[in-house]
Amino acid sequence: MLKTMLSDPQAKAKAQRITSLSVVKSAVEFLEQYNITTLSKLQKTLAATETKFDTVNERTKAVEERLKKLNPLIKQADLYLQHREINRQYKQQKPKHKYQFFETHRTELTLYQATERFLQANLDGKTLNTKAWNKEAAELTAEKDKLYQDYKGLKEGVRQIGLVRRSVEHILDNTEKMEQPQQQRRHDMER
Questions:
Q1: CA angle 3, 6, 11 (to 5 degrees)
Q2: pLDDT tens, position by position, 129-153
Q3: CA–CA separation, 76 vs 34, rounded Å?
Q4: Which residues, other chains included, contact 99 with Cβ-Cβ below 8 Å and sequence gap of 6+?
Q5: What residues have CB less than 8 Å from 102, skipping those under 6 apart?
Q6: Separation CA 170–CA 71 (nearest Å)
Q7: What global pTM score does this model have?
Q8: What are the backbone angles phi and psi of residue 40, rounded to the nearest 5°?
């Protein structure tokens, strides 16, 4: 049915007019809703929305970057603290019992050593502060969730304003094209 409709020039033109009218209607509703009366005000609104969108996008990236650094630190610190007691016991073993203790607790000791190396490489002499890291991670996660909501809304707003701007520009172009032949006819009649 759609193929036959699109192959028929009259039906195709009618469908385009209906689509154009619905686009114009939504554009007019948007302009009225936000009290936009000029093209320059529409462009300023679009620019302001794009600026907000870019700001939210940059802040989201910064938060995600910090979380990328913080989450491994938290995970490794938790493993370090979890296996620290086993390592302390290992170091207290008499030399003849160390090998057997190590074999019995190989996994825990290996994890402890790996986390210790990781933390030494990434802490730069700072101390473990898992409470502060967990608090910061929770705050950053909440901020990221809020930023994502803002991001989605602004992205939709930029898309909608862009559509309205293109619709208005299309209408203005068509209006100018319609006025030009009338002005030319008047000019021809005056001669």
A1: 130
A2: 999 999 999 999 999 999 999 999 9
A3: 51
A4: none
A5: 90, 109
A6: 50
A7: 0.69
A8: -65, -35
